[in-house]
Amino acid sequence: MAAKGKISSSPNVSLQEASTNAPSTRLGGDRSSLDGFSLQSSKRLLTGGTQIGGGSYDSYMEEHKSRLEGDIEYTTRKLELEQRRRFRLDKDLTMAESEFTQKRARYKKWQSAEDDAVANKAADVLQLEKRPRSCT
After folding, report:
1. Which residue from 31, 39, 99, 129 puts its CA 20 to 30 A from 69's CA?
2. How much is the average pLDDT of 74-93?
């Protein structure tokens, strides 16, 4: 019979606790339980001071740093592309406006002052604005 106050436990419990607290040190030997994918992932995890199933702080920081550098490069690349696109749009807009003024000036040479609809509308608006307002 078990003693009161003590919980009977199997001898494997202490082994399990020890194995979960310490990283695995099994690097060689029989790997028959590992399939191809897990073998590749375990090799990938064995960089620096890492062990199978765990890792060191340094390896985490290296991976984190490389991820951040990749994100920064990606964002910088996108920003540069956007900057080029906006510059090209500004340049195209300037060219279109200058082209419009050149064509307008070319056609204005042959039209009389009465034919210029834009100038006539502007004059009409000016005349309406100068007129005194009537209070009704």
Report:
1. 39
2. 97
Q: What are the structure tokens assigned to 125, written together?
A: 């608006």
CA distances to 32, 41, 47, 48 from 36, rounded to whole Å, are 10, 9, 18, 22
Look at the chain and count its residues: 136
* DSSP 3-state of 83: helix
**Residue in the block written with tokens 């995890």:** 45
Residue type, 97: E
- Cα separations in angstroms, 44 against 34, 59, 62, 64, 96: 14, 11, 14, 15, 56
For 26-49, the pLDDT digits (tens) are 555 554 454 554 545 545 555 554
